[in-house]
TrEMBL record, chain B:
InterPro entries: AAA+_ATPase, ABC_ATPase_HisP-typ, ABC_transporter-like_ATP-bd, ABC_transporter-like_CS, MetN_ABC_transporter-like, P-loop_NTPase. Signal peptide: none annotated. CDD domains: ABC_HisP_GlnQ (cd03262). GO terms for molecular function: ABC-type amino acid transporter activity; ATP binding; ATP hydrolysis activity. The keyword Disulfide bond does not apply. Involved in beta-(1-->2)glucan export. Transmembrane domains (TMD) form a pore in the inner membrane and the ATP-binding domain (NBD) is responsible for energy generation. This is Ectoine/hydroxyectoine ABC transporter ATP-binding protein EhuA. It comes from Bradyrhizobium forestalis. Belongs to the ABC transporter superfamily.
Length: 285, 254
C-alpha cells in the first residue's frame, strides 16, 4: 500500500481573513422609499376630514371602555366554550364508536357550513320558533327573556368556534405518536385517561399557535354581535356616531383598541407556548 | 404442580390478508426467561402485543396467571371484556417498547410514578420513593428530574424498564428493546435486563441479540412466518439447531 500523500499545493491559507460587510444599498433605498410613502399617507390623514381631537377624547370614553370590556369578556367566554366543545367533539370524532363519530361530524358540518352572522341572528330570534322554552313540568320561561343578546352571542360565537376548534384539536391529537397511546395503555390506562394525561398535554404544544390565531379571530368576530345588540366595542362606537355623526373618528377609536388588544395577546401566546413546551429539546437545551 | 404463568393455545392473528400468527401454542413458566428470535414479520412482536392486548387475537386463547385474557366465556360464546377489565389485566404485564415511548412532557421520575399514582391510585410519596429506588436500580439515580429529550437512547430505555417495573408486573415483555439503540448503548440496557433476569422475573424478550439469548435465556423460541419452528435450551437452538430454517436464519444473522 502507498503511504498517505502530503497535502496538495495551490490552495491559499485563509486563516485570519474575515467575511466583509456588504453595503446593502438596495435595502437602504427601499427603506427610505417606504418611509416616504408612509409619511405621505400620514400627512394625508392629518389634513383630511378627521377631527383628531374626537379620536383622543373618545379613546377613553366610558362607553368605549365598557365596550372593550364586554368584547373581551365575550371573546374569552366564547373561546372557552369553543375549546371545551372542540375537545369533546375531537375525542368523539376519533372514537371507535360510529354513533359518536357521526354526531361529531354532523356538528362540524352544520356549524362550519353556515355564516356566523346568520347563526347569531338565529340564536337571537329563537323566540320566534319557541315562544317558551324549558323542561315541561320542571321549569319554563319565555324565550325572549332567556335569550338575551349576551346569551345569544355566547352560544352563537362559542358553538361556531367549537366546530373549528374541534378540527384543530383533532390535528393536535393525531400529531401525537401512536406509541404514546400504547405506552399509556401498557401501564393500564383507559382511553379517556390516556387522552387526558398523556395525549392532550402533548397535543397542546401543537395546537396553541393555531388556537392563538383562532382567539385573535374571535376577538374581532365579537364585533358581529353588534347586530344582535350585544354592547361590545363596535356596537358602542356605532351608538356614539349615530348621535354625533363622527363616523370615521369613532371607527378609528375602535380600530385602535382592537389593535392594542391583539398586540397584547401575541406575547401572552408565547408564554403559553413555553409552558407547554416542557420536555422538548428546544427548551431543554 | 406449578402452572404456566402464560398459556398460549392455538392463537391466530390476521392483519387483513396477512397471517401474522398461525395456530401458535406456547407455555411460559414462572421465573423463566424466554427469548423469541426470528426474521422481521415472523410474528414474534405480534405475539408479545397479543399478550398485553395491544393487539386482539382472532382465534385461540391466552391465559395469564390462570385468567383468560380479553374475553369471558358465557353461555357457549365469548364476550369481549370492557376497557376497564382489559386495563386491569394489563397491570400484570410490563411492556418495554422498541422505541421507548417515554412520555416526553414528563420527567424520568414522573414517567415512572404516572402509572402507580394515576392508575393504581397509590400514595404519591410512597410511589416516588419506590421510583427513586427503581431509578437507582437501573443506574439513573441522578437523572430523576431529566426530561426524556435530555437522555440518551440507552438511558431512555432504562427509564422505560423502570416505568414498567413500577407497576409490579408478574411478567415483563420486551419488544426488541435494543434495536433502536446506537451500538455502544446496547450493553447498558442488556445489563439491566440481565440483573432483572437474575432477580427471578419472568421475561419474554423479542431480540436480535443472540449473545444475550445465549447467556441469559432459559429457552429460545425461533419463529418464522407466524409459527414456532423450533424451541429449546439456548445452547441447543443456537448451538445445534435441528431445523433447516433455524440453521438458515442463524447463519444469516451471525
Amino acid at each position: 500500500m502507498k503511504p498517505a500523500p502530503a497535502l496538495a499545493q495551490g490552495f491559499p491559507d485563509l486563516s485570519g481573513m474575515r467575511i466583509a460587510r456588504e453595503p446593502h444599498w438596495f435595502r437602504w433605498i427601499s427603506a427610505a422609499l417606504i418611509i416616504l410613502v408612509l409619511a405621505a399617507i400620514a400627512r394625508a390623514f392629518a389634513n383630511g376630514q378627521i377631527e383628531w381631537s374626537y379620536v383622543s377624547r373618545f379613546l377613553t370614553a366610558k362607553v368605549i371602555l365598557e365596550g372593550i370590556v364586554n368584547t373581551m369578556v365575550m371573546a374569552v367566554l366564547a373561546m372557552m366554550l369553543g375549546i371545551l366543545l372542540g375537545i369533546v367533539v375531537a375525542i368523539m370524532r376519533l372514537s371507535p364508536n360510529p354513533v359518536l363519530k357521526s354526531v361529531a361530524a354532523g356538528y362540524t358540518w352544520l356549524f362550519r357550513g353556515t355564516p356566523l352572522i346568520l347563526q347569531l341572528l338565529l340564536w337571537f330570534n329563537l323566540a320566534l320558533v319557541f315562544p317558551t322554552i324549558g323542561i315541561p313540568g320542571v321549569w319554563t320561561a319565555r324565550a325572549v327573556d332567556v335569550m338575551t343578546p349576551f346569551l345569544a352571542a355566547l352560544l352563537g360565537l362559542g358553538i361556531n368556534q367549537g366546530a373549528y376548534t374541534s378540527e384543530v384539536m383533532r390535528a393536535g391529537m393525531l400529531s401525537v405518536d401512536i406509541g404514546q397511546y400504547e405506552a399509556a395503555q401498557a401501564i393500564g390506562m383507559g382511553r379517556l385517561r390516556a387522552l387526558r394525561r398523556i395525549v392532550l398535554p402533548q397535543a397542546m404544544r401543537v395546537v396553541i399557535p393555531p388556537l392563538g390565531n383562532e382567539f385573535i379571530g374571535m376577538v374581532k368576530a365579537t364585533s358581529l354581535a353588534s347586530v344582535i345588540q350585544y354592547p361590545e366595542l363596535l356596537h358602542n362606537a356605532e351608538n356614539i356616531y349615530y348621535a354625533n355623526s363622527r363616523v370615521i373618528e369613532l371607527l378609528i377609536v375602535a380600530g385602535l383598541w382592537y389593535l392594542l388588544v391583539v398586540s397584547i395577546l401575541t406575547p401572552l401566546q408565547m408564554l403559553l407556548e413555553r409552558r407547554f413546551a416542557r420536555g422538548t429539546l428546544r427548551l431543554a437545551r | 404442580m406449578t402452572k404456566p404463568l402464560v398459556a398460549i393455545r392455538s392463537v391466530s392473528k390476521n392483519f387483513g390478508e396477512f397471517q401474522a400468527l398461525k395456530n401458535v401454542s406456547l407455555d411460559v413458566w414462572p421465573g423463566e426467561v424466554m427469548c423469541l428470535i426470528g426474521a422481521s414479520g415472523s410474528g414474534k412482536t405480534t405475539l408479545l402485543r397479543c399478550i398485553n392486548q395491544l393487539a386482539t387475537i382472532d382465534a385461540g386463547g391466552i391465559w395469564l396467571d390462570g385468567e383468560l385474557l380479553g374475553v369471558r366465556e358465557h353461555g357457549g360464546r365469548l364476550h369481549r371484556l370492557s376497557e376497564q377489565q382489559i386495563g386491569r389485566q394489563r397491570l400484570k404485564t410490563g411492556m418495554v417498547f422498541q422505541r421507548f415511548n417515554l412520555f416526553p412532557h414528563k420527567t424520568a421520575l414522573e414517567n415512572i410514578t404516572e402509572g402507580p399514582t394515576q392508575v393504581q391510585g397509590r400514595k404519591a410519596d410512597e410511589v416516588r420513593a419506590e421510583a427513586r429506588e427503581l431509578l437507582r436500580r437501573v443506574g439513573l439515580a441522578a437523572k430523576a428530574d431529566s426530561y426524556p429529550a435530555q437522555l440518551s437512547g440507552g438511558q431512555q430505555q432504562r427509564v422505560a424498564i423502570a416505568r414498567a417495573l413500577a407497576m409490579k408486573p408478574m411478567l415483563m415483555l420486551f419488544d426488541e428493546p435494543t434495536s433502536a439503540l446506537d451500538p455502544e448503548l446496547v450493553g447498558e440496557v442488556l445489563a439491566v435486563m440481565k440483573e432483572l433476569a437474575k432477580s427471578g422475573m419472568t421475561m419474554m424478550v423479542v431480540t436480535h441479540e443472540l449473545g444475550f439469548a445465549r447467556e441469559v435465556a432459559d429457552r429460545v423460541v425461533y419463529m418464522d412466518q407466524g409459527a414456532i419452528v423450533e424451541q429449546g435450551r439456548a445452547s441447543d437452538v443456537l448451538g445445534a439447531p435441528r431445523e433447516e430454517r433455524t440453521k438458515a436464519f442463524l447463519s444469516a444473522v451471525i
